[in-house]
Amino acid sequence: MTEGSAEAPGTGFIEANLPYSVDTGEKPVTETLAPGNIVRTRVGKYEDRRVIIRDGRAMSDEFTLDEYGFEFVRHETAVEDFFDADEIASVYYPEIDRLVKERTGATRVVIFDHTLRTGDEATRKEKLIREPVKSVHNDYTEWSAPQRVRDLLPAKEAEALLKGRFAVIQVWRAIRQPIESEPLAICDARSLVPEDMLAAERRYPDRVGETYRITYNPDHRWYYFPNMRRDEALVFKVYDSAKDGRARFTAHTSFDDPATPPDAAPRESIEVRALAFFDTE
After folding, report:
1. H-type helices in the chain, by residue range?
2. Is 11 a member of any domain?
């Protein structure tokens, strides 16, 4: 039986290898070496684990940010060219601001970053964008999420906001053609436990951050959404300061889908990162 298949469904799933980290006792490090974050080195040990990844489309109405850690939504965009940084800032960021407020109930959203990715090497070199990340991970940790607020906002404002609840939300979508290769797999937050999360240093030219790399656990429950279109978005939570039982971290990774046709288009995607602040309840 495939690893992690204790609750394997009868239909609506694939089996694929996911790249998990191995805890060697040494803190893993990822370092950016060039502008645009396109040249990086990674220190750490990985292992492929074959898991079941369920097709989430049939149950997309069930997913919620506070229970599963992610939601799959229909979301139209007016952006014409995602390779135009000015258009992303002027058109897409306001769209995502509204979407995050709508899906989370946040009263304030601060969009601070976005990353374009492609599976095509020529496009990466031409556009100076990054490759899909094949490593099971979560982008922020107990330390780095509050630190990001401090990095981005004036000191007094940051400390005041950190007294209340806040979350880091990411929104992922296709930017031109539907995703036919290297799709995103996302883990049910309820199946992720603290013992699975391995703090990893993230070095940039101007600062040091921290992410969680994820070690294998057969209880992890994985989902993906085949052939995601440009008018669909995956909204997921990579940090929540609330410790009341709601989802706080959501592991994810790109992976090689064994069902990908040989003539599949290279994956082109964008992910936007946002801070979401909430009124005190």
Report:
1. 85-87, 93-104, 121-127, 144-152, 155-161
2. no
Q: What gap in Å lies between CA 172 and CA 36, rounded to an integer?
A: 19
Query: What is the strand order of the sheet 268-277 is part of?
Result: 70-74, 232-240, 166-174, 268-277, 108-118
SS3 for 280? coil
Structure tokens at 48: 């492929």
Residue 14 falls inside a structural domain: no
Q: How many CB atoms lie within 10 A of CB 100?
A: 24
3-class DSSP assignment, residue 176: coil
Q: Is the pTM of this model over 0.85?
A: yes
CA distance 144 to 138: 11
What is the token pair recorded at 226? 């085949």
Total structural domains within the chain: 1
* Cα distance between residue 207 and residue 112, in whole Å: 15
Q: Is 9 inside any structural domain?
A: no
Structure tokens at 187: 């883990």
Domain range for 191:
19-277
Per the structure block, which two tokens stand in for 67? 């229970």
Q: Which mean pLDDT values do the consecutive 10-residue runs of the chain (281 residues) have?
A: 43 93 88 59 87 96 98 98 97 98 98 94 84 94 98 97 98 97 98 97 81 98 97 98 98 96 95 94 55
Which among 183, 218, 212 has a CA at the least distance from the CA of 198?
A: 212
Q: Report residue 60: phi and psi, to 5°.
A: -60, -30
CATH (domain of 184): 2.60.120
Q: What are phi and psi of 10, to 5 degrees?
A: -80, -30
- Mind listing the pLDDT tens digit for each residue in 62-75? 999 999 999 999 99
Residue 110 contacts residue 152 (beta carbons within 8 Å)? yes
